[in-house]
Fold this sequence. Notes:
- The structure is a single chain.
- By secondary structure, the chain is an alpha/beta fold.
- It has one domain (19-156): Nucleoside Triphosphate Pyrophosphohydrolase, CATH 3.90.79.
- It is 22% helix and 42% strand.
- It has helices at 5-14, 59-71, 136-146, and strands at residues 19-29, 35-40, 46-47, 49-52, 74-90, 96-110, 120-126, 153-156.
- The two termini are 23 Å apart.
Amino acid sequence: MAVPEFILQIREKIGNDPLWLPGVRGVVxxxxxxxxxxxxxDNGRWTLITGMLEPGEHPAPGLLREIFEETAVVxxxxxxxxxxxIGPVTYPNGDVCDFLDIAFKCRYVSGExxxxxxxxxxxxxxxxxxxxxxxAGHRETIRLALEPGxxxxxxxx
Length: 157
């Protein structure tokens, strides 16, 4: 995965010091209530679709951009599920980041799910009773998406 240019520019100035970044994740559900997941290229784990926002980018369109870039699926956001903090995360090169994470429930609109960039090695739709191993935080986000009209959850992963 390529590090965004704006992150590289900031890292030139601050080195490995902690960096606060906005992130998004989406529970994309199709008409059969299957969940769209990707298998990450960097660690092989299955996850919801996630990403970092570009400077000045609104969270909802930013997530839809990430979903399309990673999976070739067009989706719509329906509602915010949760707002939380992930981190600190220390990367192998020593960079430290904390992420403000905004999770959305999304609805499939069109497109054939496939690997669409170098961030994933697999992409697919999964029935709720056939999910691969995913993190507890991502399972909780899926649970929130399935609760109609639930209030936004404020959490720390």
